[in-house]
From TrEMBL:
<comment type="similarity">
    <text>Belongs to the UPF0260 family.</text>
</comment>
<protein>
    <recommendedName>
        <fullName>UPF0260 protein BJF95_14430</fullName>
    </recommendedName>
</protein>
<dbReference type="InterPro" id="IPR005358">
    <property type="entry name" value="Puta_zinc/iron-chelating_dom"/>
</dbReference>
<dbReference type="Pfam" id="PF03692">
    <property type="entry name" value="CxxCxxCC"/>
</dbReference>
<dbReference type="InterPro" id="IPR008228">
    <property type="entry name" value="UCP006173"/>
</dbReference>
């Protein structure tokens, strides 16, 4: 009998098809924010300074297929990286599934609506400045912790 459970509950990250993998991204844009690393502790801190290619309103990459030409160090997430990247936000679809959690109600795969991630206040929408407008020396002035908001069940895991 076919499983009636959605694929993110039944497949591991490594078992997903390319389309399933891509759809697991909720479109929050949080991983496109610049981060600062403490050289001594290795701890990573978010800033609200966005990558030059991030559209601060839609939270989409402005040139995703060709982004490496502009941003060579843009990370292409893989299942292995989800395991090792400690800074992935707690709300990130990849992190949630990797850690054995369900997706929240606002994830587009659950709601059927790409806008709910913005409506729920999860995404970077309207909260960023572009790195084009800030010198690297000033990144420290933009440290922020809202991308790391720990979500509890009141934020609505699906049952
Ligand atoms: S943090 Fe995760 S869910 Fe959000 S845009 Fe990045 S990969 Fe997608
Ligand atoms: S190049 Fe695109 S996907 Fe990569 S960090 Fe920048 S906005 Fe995000």
């Amino acid at each position: 009998m076919m499983s009636t459970e959605p694929y993110w509950k039944t497949k591991s990250l490594a078992e997903m098809t390319t389309v399933e993998w891509e759809n697991l991204c909720d479109g929050c844009g949080l991983c496109c924010l610049n981060k600062l690393e403490d050289w001594e502790s290795g701890e990573v801190f978010f800033t609200s300074v966005a990558c030059t290619l991030l559209d601060g309103e839609t939270c989409q990459c402005k040139d995703y297929p060709n982004r490496k030409a502009t941003v060579p160090d843009c990370i292409q997430l893989t299942p292995d990286q989800v395991e090792t990247l400690s800074w992935l936000p707690p709300s990130c679809g990849y992190r949630l599934v990797h850690e054995g959690h369900d997706l929240y109600w606002w994830h587009p795969l659950v709601s059927g609506d790409p806008d709910t991630v913005h409506q729920a206040g999860i995404s970077a929408k309207g909260r960023t400045v572009s790195e084009d407008d800030v010198s690297v020396d000033e990144f420290e002035d933009y440290l922020c912790d809202w991308p790391l908001t720990v979500l509890d069940d009141s934020a609505g895991h699906t049952p």
